[in-house]
Amino acid sequence: MTLQSIADGPTDRLAKNSVGLAHIVFFVVAAAAPLTAVVGATPAAFAFGNGAGVPGAFVLAGILYMLFSVGFTAMSRHVGGAGAFYTYITHGIGKPAGVGGALMALVTYSAVQIAVYGLFGLFMAGAMAPIVEMPWWVWSFAALVIVHICGQRNIAFSGAILGVCMIAEIAILLLLDIGIVMAGGGPEGFGFTSFSPATVFAPGLGVALVFVVGSYIGFEATAIFGEEAENPEKTIPRATYVAVLLITVFYAFSTWAIVQFYGPAAVQPTAEAGLEAFYFTATDTILGPWASQVMNILLITSLFACVLSFHNTLNRYFFALGREGLAFKLLGKVHPMHGSPYVAGMLQSAIAAVVLVLFILAGADPYTVVFSWMSALAVIGILVVQALVSVAIILFFRKVKTGHGVWTTTIAPALGLAGLLGALALVIANLSLLSGSESLIVKSFPYLIVLVGLIGATFAMQIRKAKPELYASLGKAFE
Asked: Alpha carbon of 334 to those of 3, 78, 133: distances in Å?
């Protein structure tokens, strides 16, 4: 497709055939931020969770999301588009639930984005301190501007950037993992007790799953790029399975390697003694100080890649709502040259900027408040929305007869739903630990997500009364 053909085409259609399997996988894995998830999140899972069983917890989460993906990818062959979860829930449960799910997804991805901007600013300020002293929020806003510019371009442009960042951060972790293997492990040698049931299901598994499940946020974004994908009927399912498999195998292998370095008996107390130094000590020992310096730099690029991925995801949610008539129609416009939802990008960048300003004015710490609070909100939100999607998948295939078997249409989605609800219960039960706060604001997050969903459903029902024609058309743009 030429730039001219895009310019001459409809103003409410995203650029067709602009991304392939590799680009979509880059977006999803970059959103998972491998280096940030492994180096930043898993030390807490080791320290407060099931210790040496963390690699096995990643395997459990991978199985859960593989089960979720069975019905998710099957349904993507029948409904799709930039609306993603909104589209699935609308077609499966109904339009009020779909609008409620869309608003919950917007809150979830917005929370992730704000969290990452805070963490990016913190790391960048620390890295640049020897050269120039700047508040963390200066770097956060600098990242916001660059991310916004990238988001205005064709999706393949962002995909190329994400690909480079992802390969670099995976490479440094693989060097560490392979170095540990080549060194023959640590004081206890090699072993696979991290995957044994007794180790995995040890006390603390629930706490570990809080951090582990959070590391998968964003994998479902494959469906969002359905309109821009080459041969989406095949590309989207393949991208989903590849992304989940890559995330699971890589995280399980990396955490298993670090267990070998410290030893299964020592890994938990070592993590408790120093969360920040947990991986850097191993990197210094195995690869040398140069690698730790590189890892610090790649942590920053990992965060940038993550926020760029979620920016593009959010753009397409706002675009979907605009095209559906649920928000300003202007949000449904695409760029005449790049085929990107550029107006939606302007709005959501502005929202992110406003929220950041509010945190700054409140004097919030970028890690203990901005990152920790927003991450907790995001984990709750994504699990609720994914649970709704699982219900939608089951109901959709009961209404629409297809060639799929009972495993695809009922059993796998039901098992996925049970796992998601269990994970949600664990997250809520360990919310104070996940957020690092006993604040009433944090404790209200589960109720806030439900309230947002109810507001969306109520809004849809009001549309049904006031604008029946608009209500009847909801979801039609994605059929």
From this structure: 13, 24, 39
186 φ, ψ to 5°? -115, -150
CA distances in angstroms from 476 to 90, 179, 211, listed in the order given: 10, 53, 37
pTM over 0.90: no
Amino acid found at 165: C
Which pairs from 411-419 meet CB under 8 Å and 24+ separation? 412/67, 412/68, 412/70, 412/71, 413/67, 413/68, 413/70, 413/71, 414/390, 415/67, 416/64, 416/65, 416/67, 416/68, 416/70, 416/71, 416/390, 417/387, 417/390, 417/391, 419/64, 419/67, 419/68
Q: Could you give the residue ranges of the DSSP H alpha helices within 196-341? A: 197-200, 205-214, 232-262, 267-273, 278-286, 289-324
The per-residue pLDDT for range 151-165, each reduced to its tens digit, is 777 555 656 666 677
* Cα 45 to Cα 399: distance, rounded to the nearest angstrom: 41
The residue-averaged pLDDT of 41-51 equals 89
DSSP 219: G
Q: How many CB atoms lie within 10 A of CB 336?
A: 14
Total length of the chain: 479
141-to-111, 126, 307, 342, 453 alpha-carbon distances in Å:
16, 16, 12, 19, 30
